Amino acid sequence: MKIIIDIDKKTIEVPENLKKAYEEQLNVDKMLGNKSKSILEQLNTSEYKIISKHKNSKADKTSLKDIEEYMNSIKSTNKEKYEEYTTLLNKGGELKKDGKPKKTNFLIIKKWFYTNFPEKNPFKD
Question: What is the DSSP code string of 8-68?
Fold first, then answer.
């Protein structure tokens, strides 16, 4: 069973059958005149662990378009790297069976880009 407590929204998410049982218990308590307990008071949390989730993770949102824009911006200043990039992009002039040039896998291009331009790497500290 999974119970999620959201303090910001002031909600507790429980399975549907547990919600029905809790509401029935509230009705019985009302009929008998007993003070009803909250669902958190009814849970035995003595053996529960407190965990935390890391939410401040960095994401790499670099796209091929971003890399192309940057490489076009340095085309005139750094011709060697631009030529290396275009060679890598087109796999050195290799052709597919249909005669179109082969394209390199994006992850290979991204690795090359971060190796040659480490300041553009979002994971760099």
Answer: TTTEEE--HHHHHHHHHHHHHHHHHTPPPPPHHHHS--TTPPP-------------HHHHH
Give the DSSP letter of residue 5. Answer: E
| C-alpha distance across the termini of the chain, in Å | 40
Confidence (pTM): 0.51
Higher pLDDT, 52 or 120: 120
Residue 49 to residue 114: CA distance in whole angstroms: 40
Amino acid at 103: K
pLDDT category, 111, cuts 50, 70, 90?
very high
Mean pLDDT of the chain: 85
